[in-house]
Sequence to fold (718 residues):
Amino acid sequence: MAPETGTAPRTVALFATCLADLVRPSVAFASVRLLEAAGCRVEVPAAQTCCGQPAYNSGDRKHAARIARRTVRAFRGYEWIVVPSGSCAGMLRCHYADLLGGEDEGFGERVWELTSFLVDVCGFEGVKARWPMTAAYHDSCAGLRELGVKDQPRALLAKVEGLTLAELPDAEVCCGFGGTFCVKYPDISTAMVRDKAAAVTGTGAGALLAGDLGCLMNMAGRLSREGSPVEVRHVAEVLAGMADETAPL
Amino acid sequence: MSFSGPANFPASAARALADEPLQRELARFSRGFQVRRVEAASRLPEFEALRDRARDIKNHCLAHLDFYLERFEENCRAAGGEVHWCATAEDARQAILAICRHLGAKTMAKGKSMVSEEIGLNEFLAEEGVRAVETDLGEYILQLRGESPSHIVAPAIHVATEQWTEAFRAAHTDRPADRSLSDGSEIMAEARAVLREQFLGADVGLTGANFLIAETGSSVIFTNEGNGDLSQTLPRAHIVIAGIEKVIPTLEDLSVFMRVLPRSATGQELTVYTTLSTGPRRAGDLDGPEEYHVVLLDNGRADMLGGAFQDMLRCIRCAACMNACPVYKQIGGHAYGWVYPGPMGAVLTPGLRGVEEAGHLPNASTFCGKCEEVCPVRIPLPRMMRHWREREFSRRLSPAKFRYGLGLWAFFAARPALYRPFAGLAARVLGRRKRWRRLPLAGGWTGTRDFPASEGRSFMSLWRAGRRR
Fold:
């Protein structure tokens, strides 16, 4: 879709995600910065918490639906809802309709993953960031398979001055996070993230990027435990030129 | 041969992760099939459309299963075959035993059949004095090693070459002890020589079926070794055992699955053999069995019709889901504890054995979605695993500690005004270190990975305070 020109700026509601809220506010701030650079006016509805995925994927439909109804209400009236996470965006976009039946008010169609919104909706090409680095990019599962997020972050990263993307073998293979999976089956999860860490190390890249904090924390946590110097960051931080302002995960 | 049981999943998975020879085989296996599948699919422009067609054919059949099964029975009988309807595994075992008894059979040559594993046929027949010999190369080595299959298409995927050699030397003592048995072709040649005697000596042959064709009453097997053909052609009787969901309407429909199944399973354009069997030998036929029996097994399948799990009955047992699964790749098939491993097993096993026993399987998934991406009949496997988790949760089968923790978290998550101060506090606490090597109640995480520090303030508190960056 071509960017709109000469019209009033889009008002975008940011769903920051519970992990960015708790662990990594810079991801949400970077998202705001990017959305504003793309000509959007950004609002952050106060009544947001979590998308409800931990309950939904644990089979607790009742609580998941309660959280979903609350989220739909918090974002009522916004035409564009943007999420700096493929997994949470996938939950809002693909699963709320199932969870709420007819009550979702067409909510899902208004939800976008950040890089997909910037590229597919805004046609944003104005990345103004410099980061002299070789980085590997991991495709997080939900963004990739539920939302088709694959080329958008790469297209945006290609505009970052000084940044080279290293080919990550098995970039589309799950890192082993899986929400509650990683603590319910820690042995299997660890084996998966160990493979991922080895693949990242094998590229020789100095940094690892992805678009989902859950996966990023898992991979960063493992790399750090292995004593790896690879710095792990959310793609939004790099695109917003904030890589030098915030310590890596 | 025995299965460890799906209830023992965590312990079995831990054992598999620590099993070095297994880990070596799994690392090797995980490349081949997946790459070949992608290549084979990309060479057929209509592959995606064929997947839709395959899904639609199966859906149509499941919606009219009674009709097509009865047509199958009618046409099978018209061709001189016999159909045995079996509600349970025990019914199927007894039906097969009765056929063996009436033929006075003492030996059975078996082609590969997962349904025969499902009903525990070999052990049962052994107790009744009928010796069943597996003739599929993979199944044969498992029989020698006293193991169960770990994969539904490549059952011995976990067995290393040196373990093959060892088992052959131990079993085939009539061969020269100093013979060379170091590579695949030597092992194969010896297996061929040994198994040929089994085909010739067997009283009955048993195969599974990839499909049953309603309009002709035929059974169909897709194979690569030719053992299935020999098992069913040389002995006096051919017994087919198949789940009721295997029926499809026409030969035309079969042509869709001939293009979809081998590509999805092994990346082949066709399997080496595609064999259709219709009734016993007719007058003037040069070979073929004198009797042809089809044992149709329900064993819990009919209960999955018309409910949340009906789509699972579309499964054509190609194993693409387990070939692609990152969890299966780590632990192999034995950890799943029963006949059907990987994502398809994580949905089917609770359906056939109950979620009380198999509850771990649908939980042991990251919902990465790779299985659904490759499933040739587009079964929404993650969604169905979530359905099982919902059943489990609503029946209070999940651990109380976990349920309580989840409920507490959900209470706050549904009340933003209460949630915000807690998130703010947690962000402050988590910001006190550069990284966390240990955290209370989070041993599952911090046992093997650090927990990143927070930035010290929650985003919502910073935003409300007017902070912009």
User: Anything to note?
Assistant: Residues 208 and 232 of chain A are 5 Å apart (CA to CA).
